[in-house]
Each structure stands twice: as C-alpha cells, then as structure tokens.
Task: structure prediction
Amino acid sequence: MYEEPYKWVEAVGNRRQYLDEQFKQGSPVVALTYDSGILLLTVSKGTSKLYEIYDRLALGGMGHPADLEKIRFSLLEMAHVEGFNRSPSDVTGGRMVKYGIAPVIKQAFEEIFKAPFIAKILLAELGQKAGKNSLLVINYDGTFEEGAHCAVLAASKPVERDMVAYLQQQAPTPPSLEQACGIALRAWALGNRAQRKAGETTSEPSQETRQEPAAMDTTSLYAHLRDSVADKTIECALLDRSQSGSSKYRAVTPGELGRLLPKDIGIVLS
Result:
C-alpha cells in the first residue's frame, strides 16, 4: 500500500525526464512587446509554430506537431465558444489558461497510463491599452508563468532564463518594430546555440560555464543565425494594436520581414 505513492512519483519523474529529452532539438520561440503591440518569432522547418487564436490572442508552440495542433484546436474552440456565449472582451489569455488548457495539460501529464502532451506553449494577449499585454508560458506539466514584457520557450529552464535576461537587457523599454525584430532574432540565436551546446555535453550547463547573456556579441549571434536558417524559415507574427478591425493578428510576409531585418545580419529572404 505504501509503495503506490512512491511508484507514482517515480513514474512522474521518469515521464519528466523523457519529455525533457524531446525538446532538445526543438526551435525556441520568442515573444517581445514593442511600441505598437507584440512580436512573436521562431525558426521553423515546414510546420508552422505561430497561430492566431482570437482577435487579440496568438499562440506560439514548441514540441510535437500533432500535440500542438490538438492544443491549438482546443484553444480555438474555447475562445469562440466564450466569445459567442459571453462577449469578445471576455476572451482573455488568463481565463483560457487558468480554467481551460492548463488543467487539461496537467491532467494528461499526471495520468501515467496515458500519453502526455509533448508540447510547450506561449499564449500572447494584446491588451486594450499599451502596457496591459499578457504573455503566458505553459509547460508540459500544466504549470504556467505570466509576464508582460517578454517571454520565451526553450528546451530547458536555464536556457529560458538566459534568453529572458538577454531580452530584458536589450529592451528595457518597448522598442520599435524594427528593433524588436533584431533583438528577438538574437535572443533566438542565443537560445538555439545554448541548446546545441547542452546537447553536445549531455549535461545541464553549470552557472560557472554558461556565458552571461549580456556578454554575447551581436556578430557571433548573427553568424549562428545564418548557419541555422540555411534550410529553414524565419517565422514572425504580430499582434498589432494599430491594425484596423477587430482582429489584431497578422503574419509577417517574407518581403516585410526582409525590410525589418537588421542590415548587418547578412540574411537574404526569397
């Protein structure tokens, strides 16, 4: 009788270790508030990782495409049912996460005889006014964190902390859209490079051996970025407060992204 709780804890620990392994090759996701809204950015290969959920809600994901699609569909359904039964103003990121998707992900993780979601998600909500944005990060175990200025998804907590520290250091106040694009790309490169190094060493980097994000020079980050996107696509989307109509979401086209890229990055988009 006394062995059962221990077996459950052991099974959950094994499940957590298994899931951590699944994200090592994943592409980080960056969300950063800029002066007119929220920018979301990642680098993908084939499958999109950024989606519109509702008028002022956008989703970024990391993990298995099938699980991300299940979560996206659930969020879409919840948002539109809520908007129809109540009002569009009642469709908020906090309600969707706290009373909707987070409990579902938590239950799937803790039911050890069923498959968990191999997914981490970032839900961005554009506030009605500047400074009222919300960025929610939901882990594969259903736990979540909320911020307002920036948020990231990455393979491990140490990498996420380094990326957030870099974003906070580079953009202490909301930058312009062009500046935000460059900062987000460098933060992505920082996270992706750290994930690769962690994968090569097979052990979590120590506080002593990890480079401080502020010490990462732009040239080396851009070099890593050029190498990483050779056979991939830079994916970028905005929640743009200045956009007319109820929906504030729009995907950034390759042409527009090319104009937003820093001049010294050395990447030409077709």
In short: The chain is about 45% helix and 20% strand. Residues 26-258 form a domain with the Glutamine Phosphoribosylpyrophosphate, subunit 1, domain 1 fold (CATH 3.60.20.10). Helices lie at 3-22, 65-85, 93-110, 157-170, 177-201, 218-228, 254-260. Confidence is low (pLDDT under 50) at residues 205-209.
